[in-house]
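Let us begin with a simple case.
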Amino acid sequence: MQGNSANNKIQFSKKTFVARSRNEAELMAKLELGSDFDPLSYKEIETGGFLGFFKTKKYQIIVETPSKKKIAERARQKNKLKTSSAENPTDDKKLQDMKNFISSYGKQPEAQKYRQTEEDVELLKKIFSGSTLSQKLQTATSQKINVSKPELEKYLQAPLKNSPINKIQIPEQNTDNNNINNPAFTKISTEITSIKEQIVKIKSAMKTIPQNNSSQNKQFDKFYNKLIDSDFPESLCRNFLENFEKTLNKIQLEDSAIYQKKLREYLIDHIYSREGVEINSAKKIALLGPTGVGKTTTVAKMAYHFKIDCDKKVRVLTLDTYKFGGITQLEDLCREMGVPFAACYDIEMFKKELCSEDFDITIIDTTGKNYSESKSLEEFRQYCDAVEDIEKYLVLSSDAKYSDMNKINSNFENFGVKGIIFTKCDLCEYFGSVVAFLVKSKNSIVYMTFGKKIDGDLKEAVPYKLVDGILK
């Protein structure tokens, strides 16, 4: 009855978690509640859909917190300790004797605390012969006065340079035949000198040993390998995790579930993002990037999104008049969507096309050249300077190397890039390089594209989905 009354005082609550799999649902519960919960039920459910179609299967777990099982286990441990004490009164007596000894130790007379035997005094005289302490011991012995323990500790615990060992002298001539002719005295002196040298070497070597973070033995290596396996670059990973661990306390460092939850939050906080492109009157957008990253297809996807999903008046201009078949491909796509299209072969034509204010948004497809060459950059800069108020977005392929992303970004860093669009995300299994690039460059991710379809493949970027993809 006592256990039941204790349970009645505890407030239990139920929580529901829904995810794509049962394991993921359990992980969500552990990230929020730790291990202090009991699973009550698992169920497969259907979510989303439209008019009864296109529903998605998901898994639901209902848990109760705090855990009744753990409460009962703690109660059993507590009762076990009480039973053990009752069954072993001898142990209690020993414990009480020890407490009495400790409490009475400070009340003993000074002479009783620090009394030295004659054998102790003789041994100290031999070891510390010639020192100031030896003279004190001889005086204490002759006068039957006890040498205080603090006095001994002052010498025994002093730094090496002030230690009584350094005061040991091996006299060249000594009238005391017991010392000069005693082989034991010579042997002790030699051994003490050797010990001094070893202590100096050990202290010197200890200064060069790096102090390891205790968490690195438990969680650091685990999550370091997890990030590396997700294509997070080694050049950034170790330093990033070390800075992250500085934000944790001891408990957070040692608990794997809490460590992962905090790392997830830390990564999300270091990813900048924008909820798509803000649309206002006569908005002009230019997509930048090298050949092969998917700029032309992304232009078509954005045109469809703004026209169909946002109900805006859209048109498309292209400066990419060099690529064979590029104009025809984009022109055909625009015709199917009912979006006005024009190709600009020089700066004057480009300026003339942009003078029109009849459109809510104009999307500009730029030339895909090798922008590591200064000539190509200068040519593109002339187009950008010809017309004001052009927002520029850098297009990168999500399956590119981390080093390549940084190189391309450095080529365009002086153009005032407002955000990043990642393409070919359906071909990328791990997003470690994407997350690392966003953390390092501090650029905002705006859109992600999937597949080759024009409709529905342009998605606004969600940072937590990127992070969950590398911590799964």
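The second case is a distinct protein. As before, the sequence precedes its structure tokens.
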Amino acid sequence: MKRDIRILVVGGTGAVGRHVCREVERVLGVESLIVGDYNQQRGVEYVAQNHRGARSCRVDVRDRASVASAVQEADAVILAARQPGPVVQAVCTDLKRHSIDIVPDTPLDPTLRGVVAAGLIPGLSGLLARETIDHARQTGTNVSEVDVALLQRRHGTAGAAGIADMLGLFSRPVAVNGRTIRGFSRRRRFELPEPFGRKNLRRVAFPEARILRDRLDLVDVRYWTAFDDPVFNGVLGAANRLGILGRIARTKGESSLARMIARGKQEPSDRDERVVLTAEAGPIRSTLMVPSDYGGTAMVAVAIARACVERGAPDYAMAYPFELFSAEEILDLIRSDDVIRESTAIS
């Protein structure tokens, strides 16, 4: 990979955007980073304080002209901000630039190009699920189902909007065996690597489950998650029974509870924020431990951006990461001692 690749991070001063900026600097050098923010002064100050040598520019996803001006300077764009419509993807399609969107619910537009749902979950979760299914089938097992699970950290870095999104997912009903149950209610125990051990996680309606089921021709894909604090999980379960979580999600991060749970835009600390992602299919269990939720998302997004640039001009429609790359390709590009990978047989 050439060292002069330029990556524009739209929403680079936000809670997850800051992690993406740090990852760009880690793997490519500060000269490869362009920090985009609709508040130009804030972007300038952020770069001066945290990424001296990087560039900053004004990017307002509601203003196509500002997006086009910024995108022309980049080889790839990582989108860490919500947009009212696929403006960034449209501009990148016109200018033949790669766009990597980590926002989990950006809809596909068949007339545009770009990678969507390119974070930890969805994103790496789909890559890991597909790899686990392939390994299980190599053993001769006829795999038609997969379980994907994420153990989150109660005190990890998170923004209020991200917390609201997650609680909204918890509030969605889940289809199980032809009937509907309340989200975040059904439990299952998973064997996770140390220091976590055996943990109860809860069934949730992640949209990636349906996408994997349909595109990999599976019978069932089950997604599970919880925090590492059982008491907190119980509080969230009770709040969901009362209908509170859905109301929080509709505030888009403006509710007092979402802000209380969130840890905002803090820089990394010495706190252990490691999270674990696992996939089980047939006799195979694959596990990944990454430094944090947002840190893992940043690693995946930057690795996908690099992989896309290596391909040359975009030659694909809007797609999910597992449709373009393998988990091995992306993890090889991440190359971090902070990412621990295991694959074992399920006893």
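The chain has two domains: 7-119+295-338, 124-292. The mean pLDDT is 91.
Keep these points in mind for the review questions at the end of the chapter.
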